Structures are given as C-alpha cells and as structure tokens.
C-alpha cells in the first residue's frame, strides 16, 4: 500500500460511501484517513463506520486514521408564518425573543446568548451569508437591523456573527456525548467545530484526556485573533474554508489559508485544507480546472492533508473524486518547482531540541547523500512529526510499536506508518529498519537508509541517534516483517 505522494487524502463517509465495499474502494483509491461528520451521524452510525474501517484496516494490514468531526453549536432563526419572505435592501428587519411566526419585518431568534452579545455596528449573516444585516440597536429582547444585502429567506436558516464573540462553548451536550463515545471506540482524531478562543481547545483537551488528537477547525474570525495560542493547544488544524468564507470577505480567505498553513507547519502541527475542493464532482465525474488549481495550491503550500466532504460522502462519484485528488497531488509533487516552494515557506530554524536537531540533520544528509528513505522509530509520534516538518526529499518510514500512534500519523505529510515491535538492541534496530524499508518498497538491496531513534531503545521522547545503514541481501528476515493489525 505504498502511496506515490506525500500529502494525505481525507475522505468523508456518508450515504454514497457507507458500505464496506466502498470504504475499501476509497482506501485503495488513495484515502488515508476517513472523516465521520457528526452533523449527519448518530453514535450508532459512528460505530458502524468505525467497525467497517477497522475491518478494512485488518484486511490490508495498513494503519488507517479515523477523524470524528463534532457538529458544534448550530445557530438558526425561527419560523415564518408564510415562506419564503423577501428582505428588501435598506429595509428594517428585527430579530427578537418572541416565538410567534415571523414575516418580512421580523423573526424569532431562539438564542438569548446572541441577543446578549451583539452590539450596534455588528453584522449578522443569514442563510450562509446570502443575506447581510447591519445591527442598528439592541435592547428589550430585540435586535433592530438594516438589510444590507437582501433576498429570499425561509425558516430555520443559519445565523453567522463574524464580528461577535459569543459566550458559547465550542461543544454542546450532543458534542460531549459524541466525543465520549468516539474516544471509547478508539478513534484517532477529534475535530472541534466553532472554535472561538484558546479556552475552547483547552476544554476539549481536558475531556479527551489524551485518548485522541485534537484538531481545531479554523472557521471563525475570532479564532484568527488567537491563532498562535490555538495552535499551541491543538494537535492539528483544519482550514475550514466553508464557514470561514461566510464570515470573512471571500477575497481574504486565500491569504488566511496560506497564513494558517505556514503557521501550523512552523509549529510542526499537521494542517488540513478543506471544503469545496472538488465540489463539482458531487454531480459530475470530472472537476473544473479552477478546482484542480485549488487542490494543487494546497499541495504546493505543503499542507499535510487535503479533504473531500460531500464529494465522497454524498456525491455520485466518490471513487473518482479520491482518484482525481491522488493524481493532482502526484503531479504537483513531481513538478520541478515543488521542492523550492515548500522549503521556501518554512521560515523558522529548528527549535533548540535534540529531536529538532536530529530531524534537521536527517533532511540535510538525505539531500546530500543518496539514501532510499528515512526510517524513524517513534513511539509517541513526536519524532515522526518533527521529521515531517522538515519536508525531506526522500520518503519517511515511521515505525511504531503502538497502533494508536501509527493510525494518528496517517494524517501527517510524508509518513508511511508501519507497526512493528521495539528493537531489541542496536543491531536489531538497523536490521529491522532495513528489512521493513526493503519489504515496503522504499529501499533496494545495495541502497542506504537513514535511521533515527532514541537510546535507550524503547524510551519515548528521546530521539538522539542518527545512523546510516546499507541494505544487504540477508536483511529480509521473516521476524522483521511488519506486524499485522
């Protein structure tokens, strides 16, 4: 199951891909991690997806990541007596705490936290930003607004507040229940929606208790103001361009995508670029040229993963969408400009730690000498992350005794994760690394591999050794083969 690319593909499961046969098809097409969107799934459905993925994983003996995407708070207006209504530009429109059905002049807003937090001058966006309101006054359970951009509006449409930090937790009671259930199942990543402030990530981390990685979705303008702190508290980030594009001016989203991607890379945290990447493939078997360029841009920027949403979950062509993404990524990574672009974007030097020094040295040696791959022994996953941060020119084999680590690292750029026992001694460390590199197709007899590990062997978090080794014919020993899941 060797992939001919470094960037990973994250595919969302749904009605078009909820069978074991289709999950296997998507995995063979190139999906490295599967996303389960809890906005459209129950705990029972989550368990069914989880069991399917793990059966496919066992069948192929290759770690597969599972990401559970929490729904987050859903803010919606109330109902209209007769719909749809038409909001005219410059007209007055009121959102209030009266549960009576609305009309073209007012509607119920069943969220007292919005009534309490919004202030004159703020903007309210309705129906995915298609309608824009400017707040004129607030008081007595009413928000009086002026319609900036009008249009057709119907019941229960969503509300976005780009200028307002709401006194809401990122996790609802439903989210907490879904999170606890997902962690008990043993999923690898929890994606946190509606992140407004660092405290939202800290609360999720406290509840997860290390049982899964925390991926913070950057989709609120308020999160951009605390981006550095959110990155520090998270294990990974997602550029959630759908909601971000509703609350930010559309023309600002590409710049923020680059800034978030580079900030996450500097910190050595995986970053996923998501939403509408191959949107037209929901209906058609081929994407638009603009969509191909969009996916290519994310790969050129050095994103760890690119994500399919409705394309694989509800579209007519889920397998073709994954195959298309795979082809785009391979083509970009073979482009002569690719290496210079992704290395030029990493503006910071390695941190003054042994792991960073070893990782930077490994990249430098790999670019100077002819080596087949870098083999990294990693128990917690931190060494694999630091080497991936360097974006070396050769493949990275991440060897771990922990299946949880191998699954989590399936999201990370360039890491081919293999489950194997800790080496018994230094000779076994070299032989095992060379054997697995040979059997996995990342090195040939007569080539050299570059090995990183920690001494004492089997001790987590002490990467302090760099070793060059030759792959010889006698290294293909059966006892050094990867473990089956």
Strand order of the largest sheet: 1-2-3-12-13-14-15-16
Number of structural domains: 3
CATH topology category name of the largest domain: TIM Barrel
Total of helices? 17
Helix percent reads 25-40%
From the alpha-carbon coordinates, what is the Rg to the nearest angstrom? Answer: 24 Å
Q: Average pLDDT, to the nearest integer?
A: 93
Outline? elongated
CATH superfamily of the largest domain, please?
Phosphoenolpyruvate-binding domains
The CATH architecture name of the largest domain reads Alpha-Beta Barrel
Largest sheet: 8 strands, parallel, barrel
List unreliable stretches of 5+ residues. Answer: none
- Class computed from helices, strands and strand pairing: alpha/beta
Number of DSSP strand runs: 21
What fraction strand?
15-25%
CATH class of the largest domain: Alpha Beta
Distance between the termini: 14 Å
What does this structure look like?
By secondary structure, the protein is α/β, with parallel strands linked by helices. It folds into three domains: 8-73 and 170-335, Phosphoenolpyruvate-binding domains (TIM Barrel); 85-160, Beta Barrel (M1 Pyruvate Kinase, Domain 3), CATH 2.40.33.10; 354-480, Pyruvate kinase, C-terminal domain (Pyruvate Kinase, Chain: A, domain 1, 3-Layer(aba) Sandwich), CATH 3.40.1380. Helices cover 36% and strands 22% of the residues. The protein has helices spanning 20-29, 43-60, 112-117, 173-185, 198-208, 221-225, 227-233, 241-247, 253-267, 289-300, 310-313, 318-333, 338-344, 354-368, 382-389, 403-408, 426-439; strands at 8-13, 33-37, 65-69, 85-87, 92-96, 106-108, 123-126, 131-139, 142-149, 151-153, 159-160, 189-192, 213-218, 236-240, 271-274, 305-308, 371-377, 396-400, 415-419, 448-454, 463-470. The strands form four sheets. An eight-stranded parallel barrel has the order 1-2-3-12-13-14-15-16, surrounded by seven helices.
């Amino acid at each position: 199951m060797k992939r001919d690319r470094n960037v990973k593909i994250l595919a969302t499961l749904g009605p078009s891909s909820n069978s074991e046969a289709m999950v296997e098809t998507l995995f063979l097409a190139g999906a490295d991690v599967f996303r389960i969107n809890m906005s459209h799934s129950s705990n029972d459905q989550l368990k069914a997806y989880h069991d399917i993925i793990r059966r496919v994983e066992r069948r192929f003996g290759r770690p597969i990541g599972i990401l559970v995407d929490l729904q987050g708070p859903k803010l919606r207006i109330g109902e209209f007596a007769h719909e749809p209504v038409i909001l005219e530009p410059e007209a007055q429109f009121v959102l209030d705490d009266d549960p009576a059905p609305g009309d073209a002049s007012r509607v119920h807003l069943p969220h007292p936290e919005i009534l309490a937090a919004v202030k004159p001058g703020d903007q309210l966006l309705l129906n995915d930003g298609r309608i824009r309101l400017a707040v004129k006054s607030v008081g007595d359970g009413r928000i009086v607004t002026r319609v900036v951009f009008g249009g057709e509006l119907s019941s229960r449409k969503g509300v976005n507040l780009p200028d307002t930090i709401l006194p809401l937790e990122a996790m609802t009671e439903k989210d907490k229940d879904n999170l606890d259930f997902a962690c008990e199942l043993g999923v690898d990543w929890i994606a946190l929606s509606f992140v407004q402030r660092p405290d939202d990530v800290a609360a999720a981390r406290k509840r997860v208790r290390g049982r899964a990685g925390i991926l913070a979705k950057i989709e609120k303008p308020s999160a951009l103001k605390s981006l550095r702190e959110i990155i520090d508290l998270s294990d990974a980030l997602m550029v959630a361009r759908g909601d971000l594009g509703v609350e930010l001016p559309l023309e600002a989203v590409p710049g923020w995508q680059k800034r978030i991607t580079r900030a996450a890379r500097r910190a050595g945290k995986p970053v996923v670029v998501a939403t509408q990447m191959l949107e037209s493939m929901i209906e058609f078997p081929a994407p638009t040229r603009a969509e191909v360029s969009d996916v290519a841009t994310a790969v050129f920027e050095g994103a760890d993963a690119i994500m399919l949403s409705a394309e694989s979950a509800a579209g007519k062509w889920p397998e073709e969408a994954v195959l298309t993404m795979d082809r785009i990524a391979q083509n970009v990574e073979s482009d002569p400009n690719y290496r210079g672009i992704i290395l030029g974007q990493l503006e910071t030097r390695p941190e003054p730690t042994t792991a960073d020094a070893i990782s930077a040295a490994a990249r430098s040696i790999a670019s100077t000498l002819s080596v087949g791959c870098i083999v990294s022994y990693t128990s917690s996953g931190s060494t694999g992350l630091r080497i991936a941060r360097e974006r070396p020119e050769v493949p990275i084999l991440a060897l771990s005794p922990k299946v949880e680590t191998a699954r989590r690292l399936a999201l990370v750029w360039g890491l081919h994760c293999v489950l194997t026992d800790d080496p018994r001694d230094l000779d076994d460390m070299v032989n095992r690394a060379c054997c697995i590199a040979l059997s996995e197709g990342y090195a040939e007899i007569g080539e050299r591999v570059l090995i990183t590990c920690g001494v004492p062997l089997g001790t987590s978090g002490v990467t302090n050794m760099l070793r060059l080794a030759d792959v010889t014919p006698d290294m293909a020993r059966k006892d050094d083969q990867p473990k089956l899941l």
